[in-house]
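pls read this protein.

:::
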Amino acid sequence: MMWNVVVKSVFLVLLLAYCIQLYFYNSTIDPHIEGNISDERFKLVYEVFRSNFIDGWEREGASLVVYQKGKKVVDIWGGYADKESGRLWQRDTLNIAFSCTKAVAGICIAKLVDQGLLNYDDPVEKHWPGFGKNGKENITVRWLLGHRAGLAYTDHKIHLHIANDSKAISRVFEEQRPNWPPGTEIGYHALTFGWLVDQLIRRVDPKGRSIGVYFKQDIADKYSIFSLLKFCDSCEYYSYIPSYVLVAECISNTLCIHPRTWLYGSPHCSKCA
């Protein structure tokens, strides 16, 4: 009998804690919008940004910068970088820019093309010996960049130790058969694009650098661009950390965690996009 009372008490305490957290997470308390609008014509942008928090469209934190003709006219941020600890979003809070990095990868390839180290119509096999196996011999650099390579997903499960091993990743794609006849269809290479371009750059770059190192040394540092293509421990405090509630909502929806959702998207899971 005593054990039942203890179990019920613990359950009620946990339920109450969860409800309090859920209330705090969905509350419309002052979103702490900071920054400035240097051009009054863009004042409505500030109001819409703020209303996104109040109306529940943005429940954690965000930032927005707008340039017009080279002049910064909007620079605002608000909400929480870590809602569970109450840490506010700051001007320099780091955030994940998902597929924007594909454009960065394209710039790296363009620079190598400009240097005469490869051409867009080169077969990938020319620079990556072993890649052309299993029906991939005709895949070109252009198809790779244009999501026409037919390598949108792999049959081989990629565990963390494989993801962190460049040679292991190379073998995965060398053995992979195309998901469809290369060059015939476009299919968004959401999760494979970075690995494929990285492997190509490692082989074409005379110094054998990864895409992250190549971009930092030859582009970002040269033009004073602050950008990280991988996470660093020293940046942890300045980064956005999704709350437990948001993550729980995402993984509770099977459409969000199914691999094909990342390839083709799902209108039911905008939180995960």
Remarks:
- The chain has twelve helices and four strands.
